[in-house]
Amino acid sequence: MEQGIALSPSGAHSQHDTRYVDEFSITELVNRQIAATAPQRLADIVTALTRHLHDFAREVRLSENELMAAIQFLTQVGQTCNDKRQEFILLSDVLGLSMLVTAQNNRKPQGCTESTVFGPFHVENSPEHAMGDDIANGAPGEPCFVRGVVRGLGGEPVANARIEVWQADEDGFYDVQYDGMDQARARATLRTGPDGAYRFRSILASSYPIPHDGPVGKLLAALGRHPWRPAHLHFLIKAEGYETLITHVFRNGDHYLDSDAVFGVRQSLIADWVRHPAGPGPDGRLLTAPFYTLDFDFALNPLPGDPCTART
Amino acid sequence: MEQGIALSPSGAHSQHDTRYVDEFSITELVNRQIAATAPQRLADIVTALTRHLHDFAREVRLSENELMAAIQFLTQVGQTCNDKRQEFILLSDVLGLSMLVTAQNNRKPQGCTESTVFGPFHVENSPEHAMGDDIANGAPGEPCFVRGVVRGLGGEPVANARIEVWQADEDGFYDVQYDGMDQARARATLRTGPDGAYRFRSILASSYPIPHDGPVGKLLAALGRHPWRPAHLHFLIKAEGYETLITHVFRNGDHYLDSDAVFGVRQSLIADWVRHPAGPGPDGRLLTAPFYTLDFDFALNPLPGDPCTART
């Protein structure tokens, strides 16, 4: 039976110190409630989260009305999510949290192609295409021929690497953003040849705004931030013996390269997309309108499991 | 037109430093995107939030899978909310954030009744009752007679103070938690008399678990924490010339006084709820079963607007 009497309100660990809580002591009280039997990693994460969340609330002296506004905002973010839209990923993206987590989990040796954010528009099992195919499948946009070589860090070509590529069309939309679109457009799975080379035809990627008609868009507007991402192609490259690479290739000269709404741009991922007048394309066929070419090579990080190739 | 070339990747403010982002530099990059025209308070809050959120993610070296798990958890929290349930308030409560914000916004001079968390079960416009009324209105539980005096910090009685009271029944539920219940039970609005006194009859409050069948309940279970709150009565007291007081009175001896799931207990708010055998009650009427009495006086903080009474 509790006695309900503590000898000293100031003793941080005295009996019943839970009953002398203030905005400072509460942090330790909360974290002490986690049981010793809780999974260690979960306990570590929640303990640190509580500490940093409390530090934040104390630093800005969050008011009761502000806490309620934050709760209503997060509720709206959750309720905007559905099977086609993930507003919490968007929130993580615009706060730079996604890019931070990408960066700290993908440190690579100098010379490797850098990673960037995955984004919400990847689709499993995109259609397989042969080398050189046109993957646009009707997506609107100027033709763009993309080619390059996938190598390992030591310069060795990586044969049979699995490349997934996806992108927005000239209106700034991915295929999955069109209601009722039941086929992949400007989205494909390819394999590198024995020399590590890949090539395909698609369309020119455009800069586009992230979905901004929900609570995250309202937050950006309130902060005076725009919702635009610079034009980019997404790549996901898997090959045996190498770390999987998730990255973009950005288009040099894009207006939003230095203010990407999700902070995904890295200098090493920016490439020149070269414009050509109408005429024969790289595949020898005649194009009746201007087209683009993009050359980009990738360097994969060898997995540390193989002591002969690992350099990390 | 962007040139895409920076002279030094190490210069934190060099041209195009946005393109040399890593898990450390990103924090400043994100916060620099907030426009000078954004409301100052919003900018301050989001800037601090970004800093603390990033510090958290770096400290625990949050993985990509863990970020995705966190996003899915928050999405579920948002989607559990409806017009009868606010799972994000619950999350704020169990992380101690609600109590922290209550504490830092309600510092009062020594001698004033302390505040505690508001909770999610308050209802506007509860039925008005006269002094001494039975407010239970059929809520199950042993009878409990509550009485006391509302005073100012200087000891002066506060006449005509508006008291709202609400509580759970012996099964641990508030009236609003019953499907289809269309009337208030164990919930009322009262006024103090000319001498500052109040009194009413209700039922004994019970300890109860916060709603724990949703994502917040799962989190508590994973952390080895129980969802129980010690028995308490809620009070909201408004009187002209005084700060509004939102608080509870807790029942001495309750098993959960030192492990309240939402960290709301304060020693000064714990009172003895005295059990009496069947016989005449405080109102003179005969009770055929045991009953309880609770005596609790409140001391309100004078508003600083009145220089004659303010002591803050």
If you had to describe this structure to a student in words, what would you say it looks like?
The structure is a homodimer of 312-residue chains. By secondary structure, chain A is of the alpha+beta class. Helices cover 22% and strands 20% of the residues of chain A. Chain A is built from 6 helices and 14 strands. In chain A, the strands form 4 sheets. In chain A, strands 1, 4, 10, 13 and 14 form a 5-stranded mixed beta sheet that branches. In chain A, strands 3-2-7-8-9 form a 5-stranded mixed beta sheet, with no helix packed on it. In chain A, strands 5-6 form a two-stranded antiparallel ribbon. In chain A, β7 (232-238) and β8 form a beta hairpin. The longest helix of chain A is centred in the N-terminal third of the chain and has 20 residues, at 40-59. In chain A, 43% of the residues are buried. The model of chain A is unreliable at 1-13 (pLDDT under 50). At the A-B interface, α1, α2, α3, α4 and α5 of A face α1, α2, α3, α4 and α5 of B.
